[in-house]
Amino acid sequence: MALAIEGSGTGIWDRDVVTGTIRYSTAWLEILGYDRGEISQQIEDSYDRIHPDDRAYVQTTMQDHFDGRTSVYEVEHRLRCKDGSYKWVMSRGMVISRDPQGRALRMVGTTADITSIRLMAERLRQSTNLVANLTNQIPGMIFESRRATTGEARMTYVSSGIGEIFGLTAADVGTSTASIHARIYPDDRAMYHASLDASQRDLVPWQCIFRVDLPTRGLCWRQIDARPARLPNGDTLWHGLVTDVTERMEMEQQLHDLARLDHLSGLPNRRAFLERMEKTWSGLVQARLDRVAVMMIDVDHFKSINDRYGHAAGDEVIRHVAAMMSSVLRSNDITGRMGGEEFAVCLPNVGMAEAGRIADRLRVEIAETQAWFEEIAISLTVSIGIAAMLPTDRNGEQVLAQADKALYMAKQAGRNRLAFAQDSD
């Protein structure tokens, strides 16, 4: 039996309790890296090899067995190796001889190296703690969702973040995800379900950005990132994360708006104006609009204003013209600063005659209202070119070019006036 135990890599020890000596097998010595003759057989020295943090525990457990309070001695602890490192070991033993008074005389036992097991257990414990912390502490909701081929779905696991993300509890989604679907903003539900169906059908990652309407927070943005797996019965299982991307989406919208804003005039810039005008032209082509007029506006003698009063005064003139446009034009009219002292206006559902009346009113208002820079009143006028947008135009920019030619005609005719494109109605 001793040979069998030695062959398993387990060491044997034999302690004489009366003399305080202990003998070790070759395998026991090899666990700690010793050769025979390099280690003391005194029990006091054996306790010195025990890690200081484990020593009291080992001695107490040993004494309990000596005193008959336990049937066997069994303890996990650390022993110092020859090189100074420590190994985790499992020591088991039993008193095999006692005197008539029951005092322990002889004890034998085994020691097995369990360092790898302890390290694996520690790594598993750390991984478990890490997952638990990530699940409950990181912003968002970690989930496992299962969906049958018939479409019924439920959350088989959700983190505590479901309260923050959807204003729900794990119990609310344990049998059905309908309560989540009810939170989705109506305009986004079709897109949400289409992305979910595609992920289930094609086993592709499920990625979706959508809005939810929460009772306490109102409209918020959410993003789902999850990966699907097909189960043997045909159901689909997703593991993923839902995060709050409201701040990011609002910032992106602000950046989008800023990229299309002329900061001096407060009007849309050339890029934004052209985009909206192209949509208007598409509406005309598709017969959603019956007529559209376009105006190009230019401040007369703007260079002279800059030369006389300075560029800061010129900036004030630009702001003044933009303000006058906003006060005269309708709220659904499309306006923009095209650059320098040029502005453009797109008038949906407005014919040429009405566009002429609107343009002349704007021209008169600007001519009769002075721009103020510090204490200086600056008088100014504008010239305006007008053209009709037609379904036969190649694009929106074609009519803008026609309005620009009409603007040039107004300037050639003496400024402070309007002119119509020659090929417009």
From TrEMBL:
Q: Where is the PAS domain positioned along the sequence? A: 1-69
GGDEF domain ranges (all copies)? 290-423
- Residues annotated as coiled-coil are none
- Where does the record place the PAC domain? 73-126
| GO MF assignments | catalytic activity
The protein's name is: Diguanylate cyclase
